[in-house]
Design brief:
Shape of chain C: elongated
Helix content of chain B: 25-40%
CATH topology of chain C: MetI-like fold
CATH architecture of chain C: Orthogonal Bundle
Chains: A alpha/beta, B alpha/beta, C mainly alpha
Largest sheet of chain B: 8 strands, mixed
Structural class of chain B: alpha/beta
Number of domains of chain C: 1
Number of helices of chain B: 14
Strand content of chain B: 15-25%
Oligomer: heterotrimer
Strand content of chain C: under 5%
Structural class of chain C: mainly alpha
Number of helices of chain C: 11
Helix content of chain C: 55-70%
Order of helices and strands of chain C: HHHHHHHHHHH
């Protein structure tokens, strides 16, 4: 993988378009750099949910924050509704950010522990001075109810008095009050129990319809991402491996890394044959990323060309793109699992 | 001959035998019944999965079994027999002889459970020194071998590294190496993979399984995810509201679930085979307040299949067709009442009115 | 079984975490606060209270020595100049409390501001302020205070400010560390992403979180400042021509003979100083644990 290329970018009603995004951070004072994201491109059509999936350190969260310009990218272009964000001044950026909001992994740490949660939800409206006081309160009530939190209780309690799932709902409410176009969800359910995870996923689906949202859903669990996404992008060490409509990705994963991710998902069926996990290995270092295809040290199909040349995303039909020199030809059937 | 007999008796004696264990916490709000009458047995070399949501008492159960709870506000009763000996309520001085050597624990967060200021090698060698009275050189050699056992590459170099120099997965492997150091017969793994990537999770679970078989060790795997226990356990105990609500050999449980709760947990897992945007089943509400638990079945207030009897009368743990399978439910999955309600729910004829309860 | 149903059931169920947070400060805290209030009251209203004039020499004709032990007339006895120790102890509270209060307010304000700015903006601001804190901490504080008193004057306000300067570095470092810890939390990123400006983030999101450990430190810091003032006074370097606990202790312990023969001269101011400092420390400790809510679920 380690793929670059922009062949997969589409025309049409694009809400978010990221082109050749590069994010690098210095490592202390060593002069070395973390190559967190190295030239990825993707786009999201209005009303679509894009899943970004990969292991920790693949740059998926960095990409999510880069879209918010926290911090600003090293290079590349990020366009929200056609507006280039990377060159905006601070004040323009401040108002552009209101159209996209972010939901984070740790539900407790996403809320100020010392503030009444209702105030936290109303905060965006106060910042922008939207509407009269009564209008704000009414809007906050409405949004809290739509995420399933009792506004009365929210007016009396602080975050630690709610469960993790409820805190996540409150964070979602806070993201919604400014009526954003795009919501970036950074591992919003990884810290939650499966039963609560299902509640939050369903809630996001409902709110997406109700508020006409476009979603970017970042996670490490493919099963979760598949459920909520229309399109899924698989990332590895700061590069794009594969991007495809989600059902197609699972029907015929073409990148060996996607295969690894699929095989790792625990199946609630004791008769399923477990794939041998010992060969999976661990991601390399983003400080000294491997040459050629960044996945080659872990790939059982890697040969010399994978070590020297970086693969470019290529169309394999049906809106399915893969960056691999030796894409998996035969759809390995999921039924065998 | 007599030696053989004792050996045979030991083979038949379960490693861990828990009878009516209750762990209650005294708080300002009242008595929290975190574990409320749990009985189970664990055979040598087997893996038991304890499954439940947060607040179901699963973590408190595993810590009570290990005697790792603060004694100041804890009230325990019942019996926990380890190799036939009662260990519940033993003073920590005597428990310390068991910890590490007989039973050990792997925690959820490998970063906070490793000492950040101590080299990995020292942390593994410490229990060896302490319990097995090993010399420093021997302990170091054993530590290195353990790191190889848990498949940490470049084991020799890792001995002299600090936890922060290792990735999350490697840290959890190091934790497992520490837990395995003195060759325990019982390993508790409390959500060992919840903080990790799915790829790492698969590796860690496989590793624990391998070590269990190699060492003929018993494992208690505590998790909220039925998917995790499916492939890695022999038996599963489902906990809800401090009680054991269903218990069965893994294959039996997945084939014939009886508790609507177990079924709901199962249905809330997103499945790869389903097309995207398949609506996930959820369990509304949240686990019961353990100070004032519901009078009847503790799951009834959240159960779509509950009837009047469920709210007034607590169901006992009873046996299913399989003698090793027990469950606590008045109208289990497959019963006429259950099927009737299921049909109503599917047809949409009866709206789910949880507000009424 | 849709997701929208939880509201009703959730609202009905009592909250596991809720009642558990009804922590109390404990009776000890209120006893300490009571003592401190009494001291403040005495300090403020000393002139109007029915206590003897602290500067009057109660020499009676035909007395052997000027210093007498506690009696009904002089509860804490009289010192070598035959002045009422009780009255002097009460008046001493004025200087000690004023110095402690001004010093810590100054330290909190300056140290807190610098620390929060350093922790929030990082980069060169952090480097400059952190270096400043380091320099301040590297001086032996008492020596620094002595040098400054020698250079400047020895008025009440000057002494207070000198001790305030000494408080800047520890306060600043705590504020910086706490700010950094919270600035990394997602709620701060969230606030920024919804368009809040730096000032709003600092005031609304960070300050309430940083204020708790700071307020605990303020009480402890006041105790330290009072002790430091006592130290200066003991060396005869505190506020000129005024009654301070440190000065009284010095007077009562100028030789071992005085300590042995007239222990009350030093004992009472020491006792009151001790109780006040203890009360401040204890209350500070309780405040810290009380507000330490974090994630207090079982």
């Amino acid at each position: 993988m380690a793929g670059s290329g922009t062949a997969h970018l589409r025309d049409g009603d694009i809400v978010m378009r990221v082109e050749n995004l590069v994010m690098e951070f210095p490592v202390g004072r060593t002069g070395l750099k973390v190559h967190a994201v190295s030239g990825i491109s993707f786009d999201v059509v209005r009303g679509e949910t894009l899943g970004l999936v990969g292991e920790s350190g693949c740059g998926k969260s960095t990409t999510g924050k880069a879209m918010m310009q926290i911090p600003r990218p090293t290079s590349g272009s990020i366009k929200l509704d056609g507006l280039e964000l990377t060159t905006l001044g601070n004040e323009e950026l401040r108002s552009a950010r209101t159209k996209m909001q972010m939901i984070f992994q740790d539900p407790i740490s996403s809320l100020n522990p010392r503030r009444i949660v209702r105030d936290s939800v109303r905060e965006p409206l106060d910042v922008w001075g939207r509407g009269s006081k009564a209008e704000r309160e009414a809007l906050v009530d409405r949004v809290l109810e739509s995420v399933g939190i009792d506004p009365q209780r929210a007016a009396e309690s602080r975050p630690h008095q709610f469960s993790g799932g409820q805190c996540q709902r409150i964070s979602i409410a806070r993201a919604l009050v400014l009526d954003p176009t795009l919501i970036i969800c950074d591992e919003p359910v990884s810290a939650l129990d499966v039963s609560v995870q299902a509640q939050v996923i369903n809630l996001l689906e409902d709110l997406k319809k109700q508020y006409g949202l476009t979603l970017i859903f970042i996670a490490h669990d493919l099963a979760v991402v598949k459920n909520i996404s229309d399109r899924v992008a698989v990332m590895y060490l700061g590069k794009m491996c594969e991007i495809s409509p989600s059902d197609d990705l699972y029907a015929r994963p073409a990148h060996p890394y996607t295969r690894v991710l699929i095989d790792s998902i625990p199946v609630p069926d004791p008769s399923a044959v477990l794939a041998d996990a010992t060969t999976i290995g661990e991601p390399g270092s983003p400080v000294t990323p491997p040459s050629g295809c960044r996945f080659h040290p872990r790939c059982q199909f890697a040969d010399d060309i994978c070590k020297s040349a970086e693969p470019i995303l290529q169309d394999i039909g049906n809106g399915h793109f893969v960056a691999c020199h030796h894409p998996l030809e035969v759809p390995v059937s999921i039924q065998s699992r | 001959m007599s030696e053989l007999q004792t050996e045979m008796r030991q083979e038949h004696q379960p490693l861990l035998e828990v009878t009516d264990l209750r762990t209650h916490f005294r708080t300002e709000r009242g008595l929290v019944r975190a574990v409320d009458g749990v009985s189970l047995t664990l055979e040598r070399g087997k893996c038991l999965g304890i499954v439940g949501e947060s607040g179901s008492g699963k973590t408190v159960l595993s810590r009570s079994l290990m005697g790792l709870l603060p004694s100041s506000n804890t009230v325990t009763s019942g019996s926990v027999k380890f190799e036939g000996k009662e260990i519940l309520g033993l003073p920590s001085k005597q428990m310390r002889r068991l910890w590490g050597r007989e039973m050990s624990m792997v925690f959820q967060n490998p970063m906070t459970s490793l000492n950040p200021l101590m080299k990995i090698g020292q942390q593994i060698a410490e229990p060896l020194n302490l319990h097995l009275d090993m010399s420093r050189a021997d302990a170091r050699a054993t530590a290195e071998r353990l790191l190889r056992d848990v498949r940490i590459p470049e084991a020799t170099r890792r001995l002299d590294q600090y936890p922060h120099e290792l990735s999350g997965g490697m840290r959890q492997r190091a934790m497992i190496a520490i837990a395995l150091a003195c060759g325990p017969t019982l390993l508790f793994a409390d959500e060992p993979t919840t903080a990790l990537d799915v790829t790492v999770q698969a590796q860690i679970l496989q590793l624990i399984g391998e070590q269990r078989r190699d060492r003929n060790m018993s494992v208690v795997l505590v998790t909220h995810d039925l998917g995790v226990v499916a492939g890695h356990t022999d038996e599963i105990a489902v906990m809800y509201g401090g009680k054991l609500v269903e218990k069965a050999p893994t294959s039996v449980l997945f084939a014939h679930m009886k508790m609507p709760y177990t079924m709901s947990l199962m249905r809330s897992i997103p499945k790869l085979e389903d097309p995207s945007h398949t609506r996930l089943a959820t369990i509304p509400g949240r686990p019961p307040d353990l100070v004032h638990p519901p009078k009847g079945c503790r799951f009834a207030p959240r159960c779509a299949y509950a009837r009047d009897k469920c709210i007034t009368e607590e169901p006992p743990l009873r046996q299913a067709e399989d003698p090793n399978h027990s469950y606590a439910c008045w109208y289990p999955v497959g019963s006429p009442e259950f099927n009737q309600r299921e049909a109503e729910l599917n047809s949409g004829a009866v709206p789910v009115t949880l507000e009424a309860r | 079984m849709s997701t929208q149903t939880p509201t009703t059931t959730e609202a009905a169920a009592p909250e596991p975490g809720e009642a558990a947070t009804k922590k109390t400060l404990g009776i000890g805290f209120w006893v300490c606060i009571g003592w401190l209030l009494v001291m403040v009251f005495v300090a403020v209203f000393a002139t109007r209270l029915p206590i003897p004039d602290p500067k009057f020499n109660f020499i009676e004709p035909g007395q052997a020595g000027p210093s007498k032990g506690p009696s009904t007339a002089h509860w804490f006895g009289t010192d070598k100049d035959a002045r009422d120790v009780f009255a002097r102890t009460m008046y001493g509270a004025r200087v000690s409390l004023t110095v402690g209060f001004i010093a810590i307010v100054f330290g909190m304000f300056v140290g807190g501001t610098l620390g929060i700015l350093a922790g929030f903006f990082r980069g060169w601001i952090d480097r400059i302020f952190s270096f400043m804190f380091l320099v301040l901490l590297s001086f032996p504080s008492l020596v620094l205070a002595i040098m400054l008193t020698a250079l400047l004057d020895r008025k009440l306000f000057t002494i207070s400010m000198i001790l305030g300067v000494l408080a800047v570095a520890p306060v600043g470092r705590l504020a910086r560390a706490t700010t950094m810890q919270y600035a990394e939390r997602e709620f701060v990123i969230a606030a920024r992403s919804l368009g809040a400006k730096n000032k709003r983030i600092i005031v609304r999101e960070l300050l309430p979180n940083v204020a708790i450990p700071m307020s605990a430190l303020a009480l402890l810091g006041m105790a330290v400042a009072i002790v430091a003032e006592g130290g200066l006074a003991f060396l005869g370097l505190s506020v000129e021509r005024s009654i301070t606990w440190g000065g009284m202790i010095q007077l009562g312990s100028d030789s071992s003979k005085t300590l042995q023969n007239q222990p009350w001269i030093a004992f009472f101011p020491i006792g009151v100083l001790f109780l006040t400092v203890f009360a401040l420390n204890f209350a500070g400790d309780r405040v810290r644990t009380y507000f330490d809510v974090k994630e207090t679920s079982l």
